[in-house]
UniProtKB/TrEMBL annotation:
It is an enzyme of class 6 (ligase). Transmembrane segments: none annotated. This is Phenylalanine--tRNA ligase alpha subunit. Binds 2 magnesium ions per tetramer. Keywords: Aminoacyl-tRNA synthetase, ATP-binding, Cytoplasm, Ligase, Magnesium, Metal-binding, Nucleotide-binding, Protein biosynthesis. It comes from Adhaeribacter aerolatus. Gene3D superfamilies: Bira Bifunctional Protein, Domain 2. CDD domains: PheRS_alpha_core. InterPro entries: aa-tRNA-synth_II, aa-tRNA-synth_II/BPL/LPL, Phe-tRNA-synth_IIc_asu, Phe-tRNA_ligase_II_N, Phe_tRNA_ligase_alpha1_bac, Phenylalanyl-tRNA_Synthase, tRNA-bd_arm.
Amino acid sequence: MFEKVNKVTQEVEAFVIQNKEALEQFRISYTGRKGQIADLFDDIKNIAPDQRKAYGQEVNRLKELAQAKFNQMQEQLEASSNGQEKLNIDFTLPPVPSTLGTRHPLTVVREEIIRIFERIGFNLSEGPEIEDDWHNFTALNFPENHPARDMQDTFFVEGNMLLRTHTSSVQVRVMENQKPPIRTLSPGRVFRNEAISARAHCVFHQVEGLFIDENVSFADLKQTLYYFVQEMFGPETKIRFRPSFFPFTEPSAEIDISCLICKGTGCNICKHSGWVEIGGSGMIDPEVLRNCGIDPEKYSGFAFGMGIERITMLKYQIKDLRLFTENDMRFLRQFQSL
Ligand code: 2NL
């Protein structure tokens, strides 16, 4: 008989009550008028008289235990808002800070540019940051006495080796090593001998594009860059081509977009012109094609170059270039996480 009391005690202790249904089940099974504890009290008549006192005490202890458990769980379930479960959470505590990093804004913008050109068939090219004079200047039609070759503008390493001043040097290598059709994008780090300020740095980032095939025209250049601008800055953005000069393209054009800040009505960013420059472009000079082993009688192409810092500053309204290299967490944390 005592075994039965022990068995029910174990059951009562093991019973898990997470919701109101379970609480009611507990009451019916154990503490209720027709529950197992009531049955145990009824059984007292079958107990040997000398053991009835001990038996009664045992069942009473069980009754108290079960009733205490019932009361406690009933209280907890009523306290929790949905009555479904008791959550021991203090919602007023400050959250555990996220340890997830953010992507550098230049990385975010570079990858966005790459994704946009990938969709129209451009692949990626890379090349060395330490270049020779041929790939950085001569192949690109820079005359021997061009000011860009000056010590004041270019970091020379040794002899005719230098730190590339643009990623056109990568494009020269592509043309030397591949046959048209060519559609390639070359993002990368470039170097110029300049004093560091809010608007200039001696290390910065560029992305250049190259498109060579039979019958490529200036209309292809315009359409490609129009598509890019719409994707990158939104469908409201207008594009404008301004005649310009580069040694490696003819004709050449500066690329302007309608000011993102004032939508063309005039503000400080666009110096009240309504337009901001994002890069340069042009039809590849036949002399450059010839220098790289491509027949200009058969093929033509266009090229363009953009500064990644400049586009990032326009997109996020960043006023000082130095923020990109200072690694101030208050700045970096504002950009999208991984
Ligand atoms: C700018 C202007 C430009 C190119 C880059 C290029 C490359 C080869 C041949 C011809 Cl291999 N052109 N690249 C063409 C026009 C403009 O960049 O303002 N960049 C930030």
